[in-house]
Amino acid sequence: MADADKNAKVVNKSGTLKMTDETAATRARKDINGKAMPRRNGRRDRNRNMDTTPKEFDTVTINIDRVSRTVKGGRRMRFKALVAMGNHKNKIGIGIAKGGDVTSAVQKATTKAKKNMIEFNMDGETICHEVETRSTGADILMKPAAPGTGIIAGGVVRSIIGLTGIKNLISKSLGSTNKVNIAYAVVEGLRQQVPRSEWVGKKVEAKKSTAKKEDK
Predict the structure, then answer these.
(1) SS (H, E, C) the chain
(2) Whether residue 48 has pLDDT greater than 60
(3) How many domains does the chain have?
(4) Same domain, 17 and 83
(5) At 82, which CATH number?
(6) Are residues 67 and 114 both part of a single domain?
(7) Is residue 74 part of a domain?
(8) Are strands 151-152 and 169-173 parallel, antiparallel or unpaired?
(9) What is the pTM of this model?
(10) Is 214 among the domain residues?
(11) What is the mean pLDDT of residues 61-86?
């Protein structure tokens, strides 16, 4: 009787055979070519394989323009992206690139921004000293500010400074409103920052003090 129960076949209401749970657990799934397919409980989980480590650099797409070029067959439309990249400390970079679509333009600009990364000096949470830089027609003036002031700046300057560790800054745009030139002027102003210990006045005072000590 026990052997008869083991060999009994489970039949559906429609009269077709139905696999038992034991048979289904050991049955191998095959594709159209006859190769075994992985089971569902062993499939790849996208969320499980995602990299959850924090990124060192953050990127911001400042501006996207549509540009055209006249060729023999007509106009060729492309996109130009301006991207800034920073680590919220003292590294910043900008990149400009063109592409056939927005995605490719942003990717190319991000790659250029990473290659053009610079490292600048800071005085706490502000810049070391006042600086005025000019790039083509854009003229940017940046001044250090006291703690609690915040970032007083326009759109492009605010976007770039927001990717650095600067929390207090006063800036003014005195020239062209071209976003690309403003971005270059801001990065150049950060590049020119000299720490307080290397100021010319400090060096002169230090030399005078050492000379007085030697005379005494």
Answers:
(1) CHHHHHCCCEECCCCCEECCHHHHHHCCEECCCCCEECCHHHCCCHHHHCCCCCCCCEEEEEEEEEEEEEECCEEEEEEEEEEEEECCCCEEEEEEEEECCHHHHHHHHHHHHHHCCEECCCECCECCCCEEEEECCEEEEEEECCCCCCEECCHHHHHHHCCCCCCCEEEEECCCCCHHHHHHHHHHHHHCCCCHHHCHHHHHHHHHHHHHHHHC
(2) no
(3) 3
(4) no
(5) 3.30.160.20
(6) yes
(7) yes
(8) parallel
(9) 0.67
(10) no
(11) 92
Q: Which domain holds residue 35?
A: 2-39
pLDDT tens, 76-134?
999 999 999 999 989 999 999 999 999 999 999 999 999 999 999 999 899 999 999 99
Half-sphere exposure of 106 (CA within 13 A, CB side): 9
Asked whether residue 126 falls in the same domain as residue 84, the answer is no
Could you tell me if 128 and 184 lie in one domain? yes
Encoding tokens for residue 168? 């207090």
